[in-house]
Amino acid sequence: MGRGTGARPTLSLASTGRPDCHQDQGSLVGFELVRVSVPLIAPWASSAGTFSQRDSLLVRAVLRFRGDRGAANEVEGWGECPALPGPTYSAEYTAGAQDVSERYLVPALLRKSVACVAGVAPALAGVKGHNMAKTAFEAALMDAELVAGGVRMADFLGGQSRTGAVVADSVAAGVAIGLSGSLGELLDEVALRLEEGYRRVKLKVRPGWDVEPVGAVRERWPALVLFADANGSYGRLPMGQAAEQLARLDGYGLSCLEQPLGDDDLAGHAELARRLGTPLCLDEALTSPGAIVSALRVGACSVVNIKAGRLGGYLEAVRAHDLCVEQRVPVWCGGMVETGIARAANLALASLPGFCLPGDLSATGRFFEVDLAGPMALRPDGTIAVPSGAGLGVPVDQEAISRFSTSRTWWPR
Ligand code: MG
Fold first, then answer.
1. Distance 159 CA to ligand 1 centre (A)
2. Nearest alpha carbon to residue 231 among 267, 260, 210, 202
3. Which of 116, 172, 297, 399 is the Cys-Cys partner for 21 at CB 3.0 to 4.6 Å?
């Protein structure tokens, strides 16, 4: 089995780039669920909790194709569920994603023999929520299918977009910095990241850690592109107090303030947007393209963070991108401290033209000493090249996956 070596079958791509499931020459062999625990270089802290091991669920999809001379050829693809170890960013968490995958998602995909990316969402439509777990299966099948067809993920996603624009060959990198222990530690870390070549920094904030850190970073680097992300933590304050405190950030030239209030508080965000000078961006609240439409309609945000996992897959992320482009709303690609498997796919997504703000797209080496796929290097101009190979476009490190795996199960059993 390979990731595109040997007799390469042809994959029918219609003019839109959408693979046709009905004419698909591949068949589903099965899925492997791989739970990994990958050590972080340093603990990651935000209002959504702290962890020092990235406990993640990976999906390996295996498809079988018939080559030109009738020989069977198996191709594998990889996807990553970006749910955090605990239910602190959203209700999803890694062990829960594994459970719903084993009980519901895998059986549904096997029952319908889904062997192409376009078939995933319809097959899983009967399962409510669990968008991040669903995304892992969509991504794995997409990778396998594109590897088989010799198609770059960025080109495939670009072909899915109604905007019809050419995808970029590189994207602006950005680094998110977790809650720091002290101002000194924070300034040291920002300095380190800028030295590494990052041109945009996102600071995690929460009540009690906001004006001082943002002000200190801005004072030292007046021209830096700076975001702040509250992960909903001001939702526990009365609106007047939250607005008053957050208005103190207005003078620091933030490109956006992300998700200050609770996930479902669109009205609160709309009120805050009217009271603040800083543009508001939503993250946790935007769980579907429909939710983005609702948020924009009520004025709850003017910038959108697109995360494929939160939206239920890369095809939904392209839909979200398209509607934001049509509404002239700037978007950027969010991150979940993922391994290189999801980050490679995110680079492909962020190559679409609506991603006009730098995202949480950091290079190999930002989070992990040993990553699971890559390398993806930061270039001197602060960008990362969009992977150029088929599918994910970067090598997946099978040895590292084996080393960090805590369980592996093959389906059908
Ligand atoms: Mg966020």
1. 28
2. 260
3. 116
Catalytic residue of the set 112, 128, 202, 307: 307
Instruction: Report the amino acid identity of residue 17.
Output: G
**Token couple for 401:** 């996956």
List, for residues 78-109, the tens digit of each pLDDT value: 999 999 999 999 999 999 999 999 999 999 99
Answer yes or no: 128 catalytic: no
Q: SS3 of 85, please?
A: coil
**Nearest Cα to 302, choosing from 326, 278, 277, 280?**
280
| pLDDT tens-digit readout, 159-187 | 999 998 789 999 999 999 999 889 999 99
pLDDT of residue 1: 61
Please state, in angstroms and rounded to a whole number, the distance separating the CA atoms of residues 24 and 216. 56
The alpha carbon of 331 and the centre of ligand 1 are apart by a number of angstroms equal to: 13
By residue count, the chain amounts to: 413
In the three-class reduction of DSSP (H, G, I as helix; E, B as strand; rest coil), residue 146 is classed as helix
Q: Which two tokens stand for residue 317?
A: 């992320």
Helix (H) or strand (E) holding 396: none
Cβ of 222: how many Cβ atoms within 10 Å?
Answer: 10
- pLDDT on residue 393: 97
Taking alpha carbons only, the member of 306, 313, 373 closest to residue 343 is 373
Q: What is the mean pLDDT of residues 293-316?
A: 98
Distance 285 CA to ligand 1 centre (A): 10
Distance CA 56, CA 84 (A): 7
DSSP secondary structure string for all residues of 298-322: HTS-SEEEE-HHHHTSHHHHHHHHH
Distance CA 55, CA 246 (A): 33
Q: How far is residue 340's CA from residue 43's CA, in Å, rounded to a whole number? A: 18
Instruction: Write down all domains in the chain, each with its CATH number in brackets.
Output: 26-151+399-412 (3.30.390.10), 156-393 (3.20.20.120)
Ligand 1 centroid vs 113 CA: distance in angstroms? 35
